[in-house]
Structures are given as C-alpha cells and as structure tokens.
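Escalation from tier 1.

The customer reports that the assembly of two entities below gives different structure tokens on two consecutive runs. Tier 1 could not reproduce it. I'm attaching the input and our single run for tier 2 to review.
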Amino acid sequence: MAVKALVFDLDGTLADSTYQHVVAWQRAFKRGGIEVAALEIHRRIGMDGDLMLQALDRAFALGLDARKRAALKAGHAEAFSTMRDDVRLFPKAETIGATLQSLGISWAIVTSGTKDDVGGLLQQLNVESAGAVITGEDQKESKPSGHPIAQAFEALGVKPHDAGVVGDSVWDMLASREAGSFGIGVLTGGYAREELASSGAFRVYRDVAEFLTRLEEVGIQSKT
Amino acid sequence: MAVKALVFDLDGTLADSTYQHVVAWQRAFKRGGIEVAALEIHRRIGMDGDLMLQALDRAFALGLDARKRAALKAGHAEAFSTMRDDVRLFPKAETIGATLQSLGISWAIVTSGTKDDVGGLLQQLNVESAGAVITGEDQKESKPSGHPIAQAFEALGVKPHDAGVVGDSVWDMLASREAGSFGIGVLTGGYAREELASSGAFRVYRDVAEFLTRLEEVGIQSKT
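Tier 1 run:
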C-alpha cells in the first residue's frame, strides 16, 4: 500500500498567479460598477470563473445576470492580460515530472483555468511526462466538485485511495475528498495553514519545493 | 473602566489595497531580476517598505544593497500608481468618525504608508474628527514597533490600556501589544482568523463594517 499518483492544481500551487487574478477580477468588478472586497475574491479563487461569480452573487446579492457575468469574465481576461508577464512558476515546479518519474509515481495537472490562461505555464512545466493535463474546457463540473480529479485518476489508471491531490486552496481539499482521495496543502496561494488543515489537508507544506523534499511523508516510496 | 479610544490601521483595514500592493511589489522585484513569491510579500505587508525589504532580504538572502532597495521602492511606487484607481475604502469606513464621535470615543489612524500613497484615501475617510493621523513620514520606527501607536495614544491623550488597535495584519497585533494596548483583527487584508488570533487579537471581525456593529464586545460603552 503506497501512493502511486499525484494530481496537482496549477494556479497558486505550481504558478504564482493568485494575487494577479484577484486584482484582475477586482478591476473587472469595479469597471462593472460592482464593489467586492479583494479578500472575498481571493478566498474563492480556485473555483472556475463561472462558479466563483455564482458564489459571490449568492453571498453578496450582486444581481449578476448572464450579460453581466460575460462582461465580468471578459473584463477579468483583459485585466489579467496586463499582468500575465508578472506570473512565474514557483521554484522547482518544473522538476516535478522528472522527480516523480524517477520514483515511478504518475502525475497529472487539473486546473480550472482555460487553455488560453494556462498554456504558457504548461509549456514551462515540462508536462510531457504527465499522464493527464485537464484544463477548464475538459471539465463538466469544476473544483470543488471531485469530478475533474476523478477524470485525472481515470486517465492515470489509479484508484482514488492510491493517489493524493496537491493544492493551495480549500476547494482543492474539498475536491480531493469528494473524489475519494486525500489532500496535500501548500501555502503559496495565500490560504493559511489552519484553513487548509481544517478543510482536510493531510499535510501542509510551505511550497511545492518543500513538498518535493518530503514525499515520503505522504506515503510515497521509491521503488528500489 | 471602558475603552476610550481606537487606533486604526489603513491599508487592508480601512482601504482595500493589500492585493494591489502585493502585485506591485512583485512586479518591482521581477523587474529587478529577483524572484519572491507573492505570499511572502503578502504576509509582510503592513510593515513599511524599508522594513519589509529588510525582512525579505533576511529570509531569502536576496542581496539587497541600498541601491537595489531604492530601485525596488521606486519600482513599487511606479507599479502601484497603475493600480491606484482600483483601490477603494471598505464599506462603512467613511462612517467611523461620526459613529465614534457620537459615542464619545476618540480615534486616530496610524499607517506605514506615505502621504503620497494614502492622501487620497484619507480625504475620502472624513478624518476631520480624528485626533491624529500618523503616516510613514511621522514615524521614527514603523509597525510592528509599538512606537507609532504610542505616538497616537499620546496625541489622543489616552493611556494605552484604555485604547484598542484595529488592524488586518499580525504586525498590527504585535505593535498593539508592544504599545501596551490590545489588538482587534479584521479579515479584509487576507490574513486568516487563526493567524490574527494567535498573534494576539482579542476579537476578529470580518471587516470594519461588522466591527462597527459590535463595538460593545471590545469594551466600548456609549455615554448615555
């Protein structure tokens, strides 16, 4: 009994993009004449855009109809494009494939981001060795649903209880649980250790670089 | 025995500016060829710029000399100027003066921000009734030193143990303790409830609007 596969979230986990997304969404809201605190956006990042808007609308009765939602998504895309150059991978993220391959562990990426949003990051990530890369377009339901995680497990040919999900948000932890797996938290998205732990993270690491030095702690064993 | 005065932090507490500052600092670092994760900047916002750079340098051995520090501060100022329009006050922040005045409670603002940075926000805040507004230029030491808080208490003519400090960051809580006062946390800067509580916050509120509906909980009594 050992962990055979890992599924990684992208934004906030492998790429330092959370804060730019928050500022871009807030700018879109402001231009739409809607005031939403940055914190409220931040703590809903990691859902896909539609679900985040639905959640904010429910929480603050923003009166978002289809036209407004479309305008907000376009506004976010436009604002984010001015900040895309600020986004980079976290240290060691590009080594995940080689490290896991050497241990015989399969891996995948599951992101709510669209191919347009994350294409450049995926190129930098050396995803050739990944068994699956599931972006927003590939998903019927997005995190915190467990569905896209389950899709990844199926593509990897592993059972949920033989795999872990690495993410920075409570939505990743919730999705991992729903998929029958377990969550591993990283702090790089701005959630606190306690928030991740109380939403079910089995362990919480500072960043993916630290996690890669602690793989045994989550049940990964090298095949020697 | 009742609380007679409140000192408020500005960025992240009365104004929704934390995320813009994080993105602006990160852009300045990137242009200086230095990689620092947004989270590491975020959790040090609330110190003044010099102290934050010193703290990041100590943590990550960035090799910042005086020339680089000056360039980073200029880079931050330039990047932040492109986001200043996105910044707004939190709901009800502009009513603090009237509310506290009606209760006979004196108040002040203590911010590490410079007059240039925060002048526009102060104008919107109706600070005429504030007993003191202490900006970065007025301070020999900045938060988390208790010194600027003590300056405010002196200006207000209150003893530290008769006053509270409202802020969004662990640095506000630390400064309030050092000044002999007590801290009241708000979540709007992106710190989690547990982080504020474990750094000494007596109570933690969602935002300043919620706090204004709960003043009795921190020992404020209306003079009837």
